[in-house]
Structure formats: C-alpha cells, structure tokens
Amino acid sequence: MAETSGQKADCRPFASTHGEKNQKMTVKRILPLGLLFVLILFPLMVRDDYQQHLMILVLMWVVIGSGWNVIAGYTGQVSFGDAAFFGTGAYTAGLFAYKLGISAWWAMAFGGVMAMAVALPFGWICFRLKGAYFALATLALNEVMRHVATLWESLTDGMVGILIMQTFVSKVPYYYIALALAAVSVLSIEMIMGSKWGYYFVSIREDEDAAESLGIDTHFYKMVSLNIAAFLTGMAGSLYMNYMGFIDPEVVFSLHDISIMAILVGIVGGVGTLYGPVVGAFVMVAVHEFFRTGFFGFFNTLAVLTGSDVVHVVAGYVMQAHVLGFGILVVVVILLLPNGIVGDWEKMMGTLSSVRKKGMAG
Amino acid sequence: MEVFLQTLVAGILKGGLYSLIGIGMTLIMGVMGIINLAHGQLMMVAMYVTFVCFHYLGIDPYLALFISAPLLFVLGMVIQKYTLNPLMEVESLLPENQVLMTVGIGMVLTEIARFVFGSDYRSLKTSYSSSAFYLGEISFSVALTAAFFLAVAFTVFMFWFLLKTDMGRSIRAVGQDKDAASLMGVNPRRITIITFGIGAALVAVAGTLLMPLYYLFPDIGGPFTRKAFVITILGGLGSTVGAIFGGVTLGLAESFGATYIGMAYDDMIGLLIFLLVLLFLPGGFKRLTKI
Amino acid sequence: MSLFEVRGLVKHFGGLAAVNNVSFKVHKGEILGLIGPNGSGKTTIFNLISNYHRPTRGTIHFKGRNITGLKTHRISRLGIGRTFQIVKPLGRMTVLDNVIAAAFAKVATKAQARDLALETLAFCSFEHRKEVLAKTLSIGERKRLEIARVMATQPELLLLDETAAGLNPLELEGAIELIKKIRDKGVSIIIVEHIMKVMMTISDRIHAISFGETIAEGTPHEVANNAAVIEAYLGKEYAEGS
C-alpha cells in the first residue's frame, strides 16, 4: 500500500458516522457530552462577571468558527470576510430595536436570514472564482459592507453606531442563549455533515470537476454551504448586538477582529473537523485575553510585588503590544500546526511523548 | 475643463507610483502564487525608514531610497525564506494558509511600528513638499512629479531586468513552470526568496517616494495592500505591463472619484473596481503582453 | 433509434479545430471504441459530451433528447457517466466515501447510499479496500475507484477515458473483465483507448479519429486493416505496404 510521506492532512470527516463500533467513537461521544454538561453548570459554579463574559465570547466564537468551517474547512472555499455576515446580523438586530422598536430578540432569527440575503447574491456572482480569488472577493465583500454601514448614515447612523437597551442585567441569560446557539450549531453541522450535503461539500473541496461528473451541482451546493455559514455567523452577530448593547461599523465589520479571528479559530482548532472550532474558540479567546491583560495581569502583579517602576513600564508595553503577540502567534501556529490542534493531535501527542521520554532518560 | 485636466494629471502621476506597488505584488503573485496581504505593510515599514532617515539623520527622501530599498529587499527575503517557503513543504487541508501567514506578518509589522513610533501621525516636510509648478493653468506637485519620473525609471529598469538578465529570465521561468525551471538548473526556492525581496524593494521605493505626500501612521498598510490588489487584479497576475495599466487606472479612478463624488468614497471605488474586475475580467490585461 | 448520438461535432480552441465534424452513434448494449493517436481529440470529445467545454457546432443526443450544452451535473443525472483520463480521486476521503458520494445521485439517505456503495464496490471487486484513503491508492487502484464511483451513479451510458493506461498486465486483465461485466449488466459504453489489445478485444465497433476528424468506422477487424488508420498510427510506408 503506497503511504504518503510528510504530514498527513486527512480528516476522515465521515469516520464517526459509519456506524461501526469502535473504541475511539465512544470516547468521541463522551467527551463532548461531558463538556456540554460542564458548560451547562458553569454559570452556577462560577459567579465572576468577567469569566462569564469570556465564556459567552467563547460560545459566540464556537458558532462563528463552526460556520466558517462549513464553507472553508468542509467545502474548501476559504472565506476571509465572515465579518460581512456577522456585522449584518448585528446591524439587523440593532436596527430592529432602534428603528422599529421591536425587541432585538426577534431579530436573532432575522439576523441569520439577513446575512443569508447578503450571502446569496455574493455567492451567486463570486463562486465562479477559484480558490484564492474567491478569498479575495470575500475580503472585498467585508470591506464593502463596512463602508456601506459607515456611509449609509440615514440607515445606520454611520460611525456613531447603534446603542440599544439591554434586556437583561445579569450575564447569565445571555450565557445560556449563547450556549444554546453553540450547541445547536455544532449539532446541526454534525447532522449535515453525515448526510448527503456533507458528502457533497467535501467532494467539492476535494475535486470540483470530479464532483460535477458525479451529478453534484457544485454551484448550488457551494451556495448552500455559504448560506449555512452566513446564517450561523449572522445569528452570532445578532447575539452580540443584544449582549453588548452597542455596535459600530469598525467593530462588527472588523477584518482583523472578526474575519481573521474566525479563520484562526478554525485553523488553530482544526480545519474540517467537527470539534476543531470548539477547541479553537477556547484557545483563541484565552490567548487573546492572555495578551490583552498582559499575561492575565502577571506583569502588573509583579510590578506591585517588586514595587519596581521598570516592571510597571514593561507591563504597560506588554499590554500595548497584545496585538503584536497575536500576530506572532498566527505566524507560529501556521508554521507548526497547519492542521490545527484537533487535526494535528497525533503529531502533537507524538512530540509531547518524545519530549517526555527524553526527560525520563536524561 | 480645467478641473478635468487637473484631475487627469493628478491621477496619472499617482498612477505611476501605484504601478510600482503593483509590479512588486504582481511579481510575487505571478511567480510564487503567493497572495501577499502584507504588501502595504512593507510599504509602511519603508515609509518609517524614510521618516527616520529624514528626521534623525537628515537624509533627503530621494537619497533615503538607497537605504530603504535594500533594507526592504533583505526583509522581504527573510520573510520568504523563514515563513513562506516552509509553508510550501507542508501539506495542509487549505492552500490558503500562506495568505493567512502574510496576514500575520502584516499584523506583526504594523504592531512593531506602533510599538516603536506610536499611533501618532507623522509627516515629512521637505523644502519642495508643497511646491508646485505650472503648465498653463494646471498645477503639478513637484514631489509627485519627481516621484512619477523616478517610478517610470524604476519600471523601465524592471523591464530590462526581467527581459534581459539571467536572473530575470529565471524568475519568469519559475513563474511559468516551477518544475520545468528546476529541471533546467534554476533553484526555485532561491528564486522565490529573491523575488519576494524584489517585490518588497519595489514597494519600498514607492513608499519612500510617497512619503513627502502622505501622513504616516502604523495602520496605513491596510489600505495600500487593498490598492495593490486592485492594481494587480486589473492588470492580470504576473503581468508587469498590466500592473502599469492597473496602477494608472486606479490612480485615475481615485482622482476622478475624489473630485466628482467625494473624498470618503475613494476607498469604495477601489473596492468596487476590484470586485468588477474579479468578476468580468478575470485575466486582467495580461493576455496582451509577454511579461 | 440509437441510444446516443453526436452529430457534426466541432470544437475550436482559438484557431485550432480540435474536433472537426465528428458524428457517430452508440446503440444500446454495445461497446464503441474511440481510437486515435495522441492528441487526436478523443478526450476533447468526451469533454464536449459532458460539457466541460461547449461545442462550437454540432449537437449531442441522448435517448432522443438534445442534451447539447446542458450542465455537467445534469448530464450525469440523465444517465451519462464518465471517468477521467487523469484520475480524480477524492483524495482525503476513503474509497467507500468516494462511492457513497456518488451513490447519493441515485438514493436519498445515508444508509441507502452506503448499501448501494458497498454493492457497487463488490461488483467492481474492490470491497477489500473500502476503508483506505483514496490518495494512498496505486494508479491501478485509482482507476478502479474511478470506475466504481461512476458505476454508483448507475449510468446507462459510460464514457471510459483511457482506463487501461498505466496498468500492468495483471491489472489490465482485471480491467477488461470489469468492462465486460459492466456491458453484461446492460450499460452501453464508449471507450477511449490507444492500447490496441484492449480495443480489439472488447469493442463491438470502432470509430477512428485523427487530427480531430473521423477517418474510419466499422468492426475492429475492418478498422485495423483500414489504410487511413494504419497511416495515422504508423505512417504512410506501412499503409502502402499492407
């Protein structure tokens, strides 16, 4: 049997859905259920506002990352502009409340639908573009949407943004809504990937011409995939609007903070895997906070402890440079873990165990 | 009529500089298939170098060229060698990892600039920065005109380099067929490193020449990267002549857009052109040319 | 009425006529061989039939219906399947998943698709490799996968593009066996080959092409002895000699 050398990039998207009983499958089922259980109990055990806020962000990124994974990871059409959908969802929710006086919660569903309204014509026109060109087009879409939101002041109030009354004071209800959204996202994607659509998406990724020859309407299914991603991301945007109470074009249509972050969540976690985005969301939010708070306030604490001015200054620098740290992280991750944590799991385990062995021997 | 001519002139002059940005990027894209989303950031680095040269060393921008271009050449080579070439070895699910890598690099460059220089706007005022000369009723900014002619000179040089020198031919060979080129004794990896370096150096020249005309701040990279794309796509990947055409077209579009529609819209215009070209003219104007 | 017909098929690429006024019919249950030297336009004809390229002129008819210009996936759904000269495995999916993806053209649920896929793999004697990732297959196995995959779409007409190229003698025997089995199942076949042994053995009729034009048509024996065919393959001296 001819073996490929070098790093493997298989993801066996359908291994778990073959109905064959094996050890791995049982573990794969228990772990996520266990995680879900912990997540449900989380706000009851952890009362700290800040940590609840972080978890809400994590859950939001699970949704966005999963959406990106559908179009990019499974269908192979990499999107660099998911913020276009996120922002559309956010603005839909915001405008519902601000202009129409309807509770922004109604807009949650509409946020997804409006995002699809953007995805439909875009996909229709741009799916004829191949690979990197498509990626560039999504980038352009992102920027166009941002400009539209900024310039169409009569609708969106432009740079001023939208401010609405938040429904809940406590974070807990938002948490559970986010959790529900995240769980539903992952579950529906699991179902979809185990069905005809799933097979069609991956076939398109692997070889579009071959897929066409097997009776797969590649244009249609690329559209379906994109709309799934748009819907989920739009919903996340609407949730964001409801939760934060304030948005503006720079925040919700941000290329770096939303679109690139979505890609990172997908890539770090593991492209084309079901739980990759989940892992990715946890890791990326943690890392982002880690840098933003200067190693979780480590430097600040150190400064206080030592009473040293120098450390204070350094702490200031570190926190200022958090985006820099983030950028370096991107570079490093892509170099070392191109298939993400879940995708390169075996590779990671291999490296760790060999390090451990060395430690024991020496 | 006068306004029209003025706008036209401004557009063409700017277009000349844009062409330099475009040529650098199209080389990189055409030869290595690398979408360099850090192109504008490289230019930003060159602009800061120029700024430092002027403010701390008293060197005029036109002389600073001899510092910024080689510096960026080396930086470009380092980037290609240590971050992009390794990616080509690794098989991963998505070929777009390379694009993402350039995004990361762009972020790093921007943040380092912010770290060192802060977010304040910087500018460079030379004795000739605001002076202009007149041909009839039309004013020509001295700085922009000089930059234009220098840009033309560099472009001509690039043509000569690509067509007449061995290195230039090797680069074009790798761009057409990497495997065939390597079978003929060309080392593709070395060529990609040099090509990225050249691309960076070219955009450094553009940046240095533009420095007297723009306000400089760390985030200026992003918009320039976008412009670079529009130019490259307009002209066709890997086509140097196309990049010239694309650069001038964008210069004109922005100029006319700013005059007749409004300042805030010039970014949008670029974007729309970009989308339109992607959709309707996917090959750009490459078909008409040899390089 | 024949099952399938192309009439006056022409394809220009720029100034070059890759296919120039080709017509032929395929009757139900027969195997039509399409032969010609390299570059004669055989694969282009296949690409025209499945609409990877649109014909410049000419029409294509299937079961009495004009299918010229229909989208590729539509043509597949109508019952015309094809394999590719340069094989296109869905690399990061298993053999079984490759065939399941194809099977969804005919059935709706995953369970049904799986059953159809397993059945098809058994038919193609390829079941033993079903859990293997497609990209790790040898060239002979990849060609077999191409066939298994397209068979899962249950075509009535099958276009086989150079199925035998690159196979060792043992694999070649297996391939010929499989093709005969497919024909016995009732599938009509157009087979493009330039390995003579394969063509002569299994074709009912042969249509010979050179430089995009028809040069002969008839039984294998007739065509093999046709002067124009010999000239096209072996040159003028041989033709005059025979």
Give the helices and strands of chain C as they follow along the chain. EEEHEEHEHHHEHEHEEHHH
Give the full name of the CATH homologous superfamily of chain C. Answer: P-loop containing nucleotide triphosphate hydrolases
Q: Which percent range describes the beta-strand content of chain A?
A: under 5%
* Pair with the biggest interface: A-B, 49 and 43 residues
User: Which value, in Å, is the CA radius of gyration of chain C?
Assistant: 18 Å
Give start-end ranges of low-pLDDT stretches of chain A.
1-11, 15-23
Span between termini of chain C: 37 Å
Which topology of chain C does CATH recognise? Rossmann fold
Order of helices and strands of chain A: HHHHHHEHHHHEHHHHHHHH
Task: Give structural notes.
- The complex is a heterotrimer of chains A (362), B (291) and C (242).
- Chain A has 362 residues and is mainly alpha-helical.
- Chain A contains 18 helices and two strands.
- Chain A folds into two domains: 48-292, no CATH class; 295-357, no CATH class.
- Chain A has helices spanning 23-45, 49-74, 83-100, 106-126, 131-151, 153-156, 172-193, 196-206, 208-213, 218-244, 249-252, 255-269, 276-292, 294-306, 309-320, 322-336, 340-343, 345-361; strands at residues 162-163, 246-247.
- Chain A starts with 22 loop residues before the first helix and ends with a helix.
- In chain B, β1 and β2 form a beta hairpin.
- Chain B has helices at residues 2-32, 39-57, 61-89, 97-117, 142-164, 166-176, 178-183, 188-210, 221-235, 240-260, 266-280; strands at residues 132-135, 138-141.
- Chain B has one domain: ABC transporter involved in vitamin B12 uptake, BtuC (Orthogonal Bundle), CATH 1.10.3470.
- Chain B has a two-stranded antiparallel sheet with strand order 1-2.
- Chain C is an alpha/beta fold.
- Chain C has ten helices and ten strands.
- Chain C has helices spanning 42-49, 72-78, 95-103, 110-123, 139-152, 169-184, 196-202, 220-224, 227-234, 236-241, and strands at 4-13, 16-26, 31-35, 57-62, 65-66, 80-82, 157-161, 188-192, 205-210, 213-218.
- In chain C, β1 (4-13) and β2 (16-26) form a beta hairpin.
- The model of chain C has no long low-confidence stretch (mean pLDDT 88).
- Classes of the chains: A mainly alpha (362), B mainly alpha (291), C alpha/beta (242).
- The interface between A and B is large, with 49 and 43 residues.
